[in-house]
Write a structure and sequence with these properties.
By secondary structure, the chain is an alpha+beta fold. It contains twelve helices and 17 strands. An eight-stranded antiparallel β-sheet has the order 13-10-12-11-15-16-14-17. A five-stranded antiparallel β-sheet has the order 3-4-8-6-7. Strands 1-2 form a two-stranded parallel sheet.
Length: 381
Amino acid sequence: MTPTIPTTTEHLSEILREASSKCQTITPTGNGTKQDWGNPITPALEINTAQLTGIREHSWGDLTATVAAGTTWADMQAQLAKYNQRVALDPLFPTHATVGGVLATNDSGLLRLKYGSLRDLVLGMTIVLADGIVARTGGKVVKNVAGYDLPKLLTGSFGTLAIITEATFRLHPVPAHIATFTVRSADITPLADLMTAILRASLSLEAMQLRNEQHAFALDLQLASLPEVLADQQTRLQSLTNLPLEPADPTILAAREELFANPEATILKITCLPTKLAALVAGVAALAQLPGHTAHCVADPVGIVTLALAAPPDQLSIIVEDLRARLLSSGGAVVVLRRGQLPLTTDTWDPPPPAIDIMRQIKREFDPQNLLNPGKFIGGI
């Protein structure tokens, strides 16, 4: 399918108005880095945001910036870095992922531990509804209380409610000095205890992740502060554990992206209580020891785990459903980000939540003809 490429928000409005009159189903795309997330659909029209690029407004004194949806995350950050500022978020594939795609999938990484999730960083949006109506939601200042907080609703909606053309973000300074370390252990318990101790300590923690290696477990962490403070905090950090504190390259914190390197692997996003993380990572390591299985995961202390899994297809279904059953009682969830060899009989999403009826009503209000990414989201929304 040849995509339609609007040049402005107004142009997109005209395209959607015409598509709506013809009842054409529509899927919005950026650079396609997460296009396979969610349920597969076959739309009549693909709309690509490739020409909606650039920073439209940067109020560096107010720490806000408005960015066009087709801008890649890395390009946006490079422009903001000229003023020693950034959107404090680390999504997957930043050199290719677009601002609109990151917002639509609500993708974020380890920085959410300190700076919050994407919904905490987006202040406003310009969107185009399925019938072509242009709407501007939120504001361009950090303190804004005007109306409903629609940017939070649109974030993570997988393009089912509207097409985002611009977004305004809250900015943070780029840390001038960082120090990155890795602690390894054959037993996960000391690392789980250390992770808890670090979270309770008064350290200038920037990011932290727990992962399994072939013969050990690893806890990676990064501190950000002045050089003299970092030296003192390294000493304090070492006092929390008897395990060696190994200096590490900052790129180790991109381990989540490396999980996608094997195109045959099934990629799962698992959410659980932070108290369940150690047991979950230990279970992944045990799974990796089974014949014909490989399993690697990266766990965020807030309770989000990305798991890359390769196993016989019939076993993959059993593993996914077993994980879902184990996490159900504590409110956890398992979402299939990339299917790999996982049979189609296993759903992408967990069973619909109790609020699914409200979600469907919201979909009908925004898109009464059900034209935008129909069936892409949970519960067939």
